[in-house]
Amino acid sequence: MAKNGLLRPINRIDPKFREIRVDQKKENYIGAICGLGVDRFSDQPAMPDHDMEVAFDTNITLEDIFKINGVRMAINIVLGSEQAVSNWGEDAIYRLQDSARKKLMSLIQGTTREPFDAPSTDKPYKWNQLDPEDILGHDLQNTPADSLVLLHLHKGVYLRSEGGEEEEDEIGVEEATLEMRRHANWLHQAATSATSREPIVCRLCNMTWQTPQLLQLHLETRRHKDKENALYD
Ligand SMILES: [Zn+2]
Q1: GO molecular function: any one (predicted)?
Q2: Are 109 and 2 part of one and the same domain?
Q3: What are phi and psi of 205, to 5 degrees?
Q4: Distance, CA 184 to ligand 1 centroid (Å)?
């Protein structure tokens, strides 16, 4: 079956750890270090020869990271929890694959990306350079959506320009709309970051979702997207 054929190349091309680099003002993602992380006893790079420092040459946003995680989650769920997935029925699998495919396509061709001349990082090939407070963790460890064997989910990093307090261009927007925008953003985060088995309510559509995966599918629907886009009209 294709499953094993797919696992091997993923392991080969996908580094075990990656840490995003931000510029000094914490306004842009400028690159990432990818590789095997640090040795937890010595705190030194575990296998420095295998680490790779990558500089971004286009603008990458937090939304991009969420989309990438959405694709990774779909692969992890479909390949890693065959049993569970087989109970969902073909339709759910199809929608999961379709949602992953669309995210991937929108990453590749959906947005015209501005070229970005990233400043180089101060400490190349050094791990653990992020302020822990800035790391937007997810709580999907030990769930089928995150996987040690397959694809680790990326951790987002807080940028001052995203969701910060200084939203100058938003003066005049109704507080209720701002609140809904925050809720919509939060939903995208919850779709990749909630462990909780608590149902998640989409207040835009007044619908309740039992798992982050189902919420993720909902966020891709026309119905939801129209409502979300209307918040920015
Ligand atoms: Zn919705």
Answers
A1: helicase activity
A2: yes
A3: -105, -5
A4: 8
The size of the chain, in residues, is 233
What is the DSSP secondary structure assignment for residue 197, as one 8-state letter?
-
Report yes or no: 153 and 138 within 8 Å, Cβ to Cβ.
Answer: yes
CA of 221 to the centre of ligand 1 (A): 8
Q: Are 213 and 73 in contact (CB under 8 A)?
A: yes
Ligand 1 center–CA 61 separation, angstroms:
22
Sign of CA dihedral 185, 187, 190, 192: negative
Tell me how far the alpha carbon of residue 224 lies from the centroid of ligand 1, in angstroms. Answer: 4
User: Which residues are in the CB-under-5-Å shell of ion ligand 1?
Assistant: 202, 204-205, 224
Give this complex's ipTM. 0.97
Statement to judge: residues 4 and 80 lie in one domain:
yes
Q: Which tokens in the block code for residue 217?
A: 């599918």
Tokens matching residue 113:
């990306």
pLDDT in tens, 204-226: 998 888 788 888 889 988 889 99
Instruction: Answer yes or no: is 95 within a domain.
Output: yes
Domain housing 72:
1-127
Say how many domains are in the chain.
2
